[in-house]
Write a structure and sequence with these properties.
The protein is mainly beta. Helix content is about 0%, strand content about 25%.
């Protein structure tokens, strides 16, 4: 990420079968970023100073069929209702379903 200002990374789902870090690094000028309500394979690392909060850890037990690329949440997944409201940002999920008052973490709203 180079010279980004007010970067927002909200409601994404990243999943990997391997334990891999997610390096986010800043090159050049200062970078300001918010990273919220995401499902990530592992903790955020790197040299990027960000406001990272309310992100969950993705695992295959959360998803319908991850080996086939189906990352929809399943009933009982810990990511359901675990997000925080983002005041108008990302009001719809990846399927264009509306997010409710207690949004889910990740790209899919169960």
């Amino acid at each position: 990420i180079a010279e980004a200002c007010d970067l927002q990374i909200f409601h994404n789902t990243l999943w990997s079968q391997n334990d891999q870090s997610l390096p986010l690094e800043s090159f050049g000028a200062e970078v300001s970023a918010e990273i919220k309500n995401n499902l990530l394979p592992i903790e955020i690392t790197g040299q990027l100073a960000v406001n990272a909060s309310n992100n969950g850890t993705s695992s295959e037990t959360l998803f319908a069929n991850p080996s086939q690329g189906d990352l929809h949440l399943i009933a009982g997944a810990s990511a359901i209702d675990a997000g925080i409201p983002l005041n108008g940002a990302c009001d719809q999920d990846i399927d264009q379903d509306s997010r409710d008052a207690l949004p889910d973490q990740g790209a899919d709203e169960f």
